[in-house]
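hey all, quick one before standup. I had two proteins in the batch that finished overnight and I want to keep them in one place so we stop losing track of which output belongs to which input. First protein below, input sequence then structure tokens straight from the run.
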Amino acid sequence: MKSIRVASYNIRKAIGTDRRRNPERVLEVLNEIDADVIALQEADRRFGVRSAAIPPLLLDSLSPYKPVPLNVQVDSMGWHGNAILVRKEAEIGAHDVLHLPCLEPRGATMAEVTLAGKTMRFFGMHLDLSGLWRRRQAAAVIHAAGVRETMPTVLMGDLNEWSANRGCLADFARHYSFAPCGRSFHARRPVAQLDRIMHCGQLKLLDCGVHDSAAARKASDHLPIWAEFRA
């Protein structure tokens, strides 16, 4: 199998560090990363009908990606802001939303994706600001991911965990390995590893990092992270 490149990106509803909403700038960053599968957080607007932060026509015309169809909210791209993008030629199999225990609305997404004849499973998530609720949410994701352990699995998202190896990080670490991508928040001066990519033992990590470009430093308050795997 050829390697597969994944990424996770909190796009902050397409509002950049200059406080301007600019979805075209987010798409520029996504094209720079050139990943096969991307987990987005804050992919929908916060109020009203929670429409997609990246309009569907823009996504289709300015990128090689399509969203995993979640069929939950008509105008939204994601579920509580969580969305998964895949290359247009990818085959999307089973996909679902996860209802997470929460103090404020939180969720996660899952998709089984086939690329170049290989099927993998991906989870995208944005966990709570509260450490107690983060651990409960991590337990729910770990349980959901463990239902079909035979499939190569990657978990990605903004875990909102500031500690180095405690809390939900320790919970995930009992089941998955972390790609050491690096610090991704704040985009202008990264000091924290809030964004994480985790993988099961069936995948070999080839490389990983933080995508720190001029466009990325402006497009959101988070920098995107990426990892490359081979099954």
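OK second protein, same deal, sequence then tokens:
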Amino acid sequence: MVKTKNSFLILFLFGFLFSNNIYAQNSPKVIMFSKTVKYRHQSIEAGIKSIKKLGKKNHFEVIATENSDVLIFHLKNCDVVIFLSTSGDILNDSQQEKFISYIENGGGFVGIHGASATEADWPWYGKMIGASFLDHPILQLATIEVTDHKHPATNFLENRWVRFDEWYNFKNLNPDMKVLLNLDEESYLGGKHGKNHPIAWFREFDNSKMFYTAMGHTEESFSDKTFLKHLLGGILYVLDEN
């Protein structure tokens, strides 16, 4: 009973915020979801703060939650859902169906880092996000090759971008995704894809837009102006604000 009352109170408070001009009525709405069932990244809190700041500066409203019921309740009010380093099985069967409906009706999706280490047993999600996490080597510097200079997430970058992060290897890479950034596996140790190692991509999927970047493991990522510009470009692309 206590849990039910608490969930109701949370939903009521979020509903109050959306309906009482605390959020600008005409601004795009983004809900940021960072629920973790398995590994929890220490960078999540830094990511929440930085993405909220990006929203204020770029005129889109951001709310953050780790409650699956709150996420699902507000899908009808949101233009984009961001999965910020989520992990494990974060939605039940009913919630999954509602999330599919949200995407099919044009809702946008942005995935950051651990979002690909999420819902490993849900084939639809793996197809939507474009790949599933396999493993990673130690954190280290690596060189990224920019493969698309026209997209807002990459149009400000030079041909090669050197940065420090946790470099994911993937399984079930979706051939339909449009690669923005590719890892040069000769520049670091532990890559398993050879010459074609996508690390950020986008696509249109079931009437919606999606963007994923596998970077963002470290707290420092969310104070890195270049990474934040990359992330902002992906969000604005999904929002159709570019």
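Flagging for whoever picks this up: Residues 2-19 form the longest helix (18 residues). Residues 16-23 have pLDDT under 50 and may be disordered.
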